[in-house]
Amino acid sequence: MTSTAANRTVRELLDLTGAWLGEKGVTSARLNAERLLADVLGMTRLELFCQHDRPVLGPELARYRELVRQRAAGEPLQQILGETEFYSRPFKMEPGVFIPRPETERLVETCVRLLEPLRRGDRTPVAIEIGCGSGAIGVSLALELPRLQVHATGRGSAGGGPTPRQRPPAGRGRAGPVPKGSWCEPFPPTLRGQVDLLVSNPPYIRTDDLPGLPVEVRDHDPQAALDGGPDGLKFYRAIASAMADWLRPGGFVALEIGSDQGEAVSGILAASGGLDVTVSQDYAGHDRVVTARVGRPEENDMDRFVIEGPTRLSGEVRCSGAKNAVLPLMAAALLGRGTSVIENVPDLHDVRFFMTILEGLGATCSLVGSELRINTAEAEGREASYDLVRKMRASIYVLGPLLAFQGEARVSLPGGCAWGPRPVNLHLEGLAALGAEIALDRGYIHARVPRGGLHGGRFRFEPVSVGGTCNVLMAAVLARGETVLENCAIEPEVTQLAIGLRDAGAQIEGIGTATLRIQGPVTLKPLQQSVIADRIEAGTFMAGVALAGGRVRLTGVDTTHVGPITAVLREMGCDITEDGDTLTIAADGRPVATEIITRPYPGFPTDMQAQLMAVCAVADGTSFISEGIYADRFTHVAEMQRLGADIRVDGARATIFGVEKLQGAPVMASDLRASAALVLAGVAAEGTTTVNRVYHIDRGYERIEQRLALLGARIERVSS
Q1: Around Cβ 420, how many Cβ atoms within 10 Å?
Q2: Which of 208, 408, 612, 656 is 20 to 30 A from 228 in CA distance terms?
């Protein structure tokens, strides 16, 4: 604004500055000019309109010129004035605080509606806000709902909050402090399972889109409150993974979203068990809020498959990348800095969940199509919490890389499938052989490197351990000197990890054998790998043909990796031909009874035991299955019996008396592979089979119901 504005009246000054701000690209330029002048003169806008002929002179004019210049330079109006209005209440604004926008009021309205039934209940309802610094959402809820108890965390670099006259009065709402720092600072542990509402306006701008934001947003809002990672969904995944731990049964999550994120965020919430997922729009007609509900105990079965049988399978299906190969490769990305690129990645719940674990450690992850990118430039975290690790055993894979690269790791003891004692003692003993100092503390593994770092050593796995081999191998590539690992697992997934590490610069000899020699330390490049085909998925489709009959062509298969499965199915009467990476299997009539013993690779895989038991259930004769790896991996037997299978279990050995046909019935999946076995049995059974708790199968099979349907199965996913 030039000096020609001197000695102007209010009307003239507003006309001049409104036009000038408009030329500078300021939206709502006249409104900005009015609010700035009203602030300088100590008036309301209404009072300003009533004094249009009042001259603006001296210090007032100088101050106004300065504020107008600040606004033209891109400084937000709210920070210039030190205050903003949100949900009809004034909030003070300081530099560095995320400014609440009008569209976020739609989120508050939604939350008030969700909590309305609790207003007159016997207990005090509880809400937690995962915020971005101002605390406007939590404070607005506390003021709107007098009995509500609100706890909030912030992500801004400075504290904001309501003006003094708008703080919650004593005895009404209780808005907790809005702390600085990470959005995931822990809430009081006593709130676990007691929260009625989890609300957040998380960062959702894609990292590559940040430079294109308006200057007042890009340069003045905290970047931590804007940057949602490469796909803009990083924090939605983190919130979804934690919501079931904090919300009471029937509790709600309400999240603000970008206008193009409704479908993606809905999918994330649904995959984490959210029910009644709903997208609502703002007053401009854009998708703005997603809500979901945590199920009550009687609803926890979530999705189910309804299968009408029997049907034969016919057609062609391409095998996905192997989940059990992807996860250790993802963990290995933590061994260096940069962007690792992993291709042929299946879009599975376990893969998405492991992305959340890596993001909790500071990495950024994006899965576009089948290409996964993991950027570890800022992956400084050293702790994988119980909230995450307990849900998936493979989370333990981060232990070795964190220990070796960061010098320290604190990882919760893992959870996962509901069968079998699968201790991590071999992981810990192997790392200790490299010099790691390890302690167990309140359910956590706390590992540190000694002074001077990890050193080479010799360790023998007894018994063979896939996870132990992967973890110790990853740590050994950064250890000083030579490490010799004996009796290693030689599963194809372990071999792929070793190849990936070697291609990134690790010095490893003996890949594919039971003895690995590693020379270290080395500085690893980011990983560049294409994931091998999933031999267990291929075997599952093969078992489906053997059970239901038909002819299916599998493409993208490594026929060597499925060799042990092929051998058994040929013995059972299947016609199998191989041509490069293509395998064709045909079956007609009842299978022939057989005997199977599960063993480490190259023996028959334990992950195919349940599926082959389903085939044996209709075989002509009596079959025997001995579980040579996990003695109690027979939790699916009772459900198979509900379908008419005649199975007797004695310790680690099952005897299966083949029946002519199975009968459809409601069944309950207990783990990933049991789910697959029950689905295959349902395809072959007469009548309707309902498979409940299919979230297990979503962990390891990509859209299995759609792919089976393309082969002729009459299968439908039904949401609770």
Answers
A1: 17
A2: 408
* pTM, entire model: 0.70
Nearest 5°: phi and psi at 90? -80, 140
Q: How far from 623 is each of 289, 381, 480, 629, CA to CA, in Å? A: 55, 50, 51, 19
Instruction: Return the number of other C-beta atoms located less than 10 Å from residue 650's C-beta.
Output: 7
Element containing residue 339 per DSSP (H, E): strand 339-343
605 preceded by a cis bond (ω within 30 of 0)? no
Strands 313-318 and 550-555: parallel
Q: What share of the chain is helix, strand, coil (3-state, %, to 5)?
A: 35, 25, 40
Q: Which residues, in sequence order, are CB contacts of 167 under 8 Å at separation 6+? A: 139, 161, 175
Burial of 523 (0-12, 13-18, 19+ CB in 10 A): exposed
**61-65, 265-269, 588-592, 683-687: the lowest-pLDDT one:** 265-269
Angle at 663 between CA 660 and CA 668, to 5 degrees: 130
**50 annotated active-site:** no
Cβ burial, residue 409 (10 Å; 0-12/13-18/19+): buried
Report d(CA 177, CA 161) in Å as an integer. 9
pLDDT-derived band at 46, boundaries 50, 70, 90: confident
Residue 418's pLDDT band (cuts 50, 70, 90): very low
Contact 53, 9 (CB under 8 A): yes
Provide the greatest CA pair distance for the chain: 105
Do residues 489 and 465 lie in contact, with contact meaning Cβ atoms separated by under 8 Å?
Answer: yes
Cα 421 to the center of its chain, rounded Å: 26
* pLDDT classification of 413: cutoffs 50, 70, 90: confident
Cβ–Cβ < 8 Å for 345, 367: yes
Q: Does residue 331 contact residue 473 with C-beta atoms inside 8 Å?
A: no
H/E element holding 620?
none
**Residue-wise pLDDT tens digits, 54-74:** 999 888 899 999 999 999 998
Tokens of 282: 């703002």
Q: In the structure encoding, which two tokens stand for residue 124, read together? A: 């005090």
Q: How far apart are CA 158 and CA 180, in angstroms?
A: 6
DSSP 315: E
Distances (CA, A) of 552 to 299, 313, 543: 36, 7, 11
In sequence order, what are the beta bridge partners of 439? 446
Q: Which of 111, 132, 319, 417 is catalytic?
A: 417
Outline where 103-233 has alpha helix (H).
105-115, 136-144, 215-218
CA distance 431 to 399: 9
Among candidates 72, 71, 55, which has minimal Cα distance to 5? Answer: 55
The average pLDDT across 587-598 equals 96
- How many other CB atoms sit within 10 Å of the CB of residue 387? 18
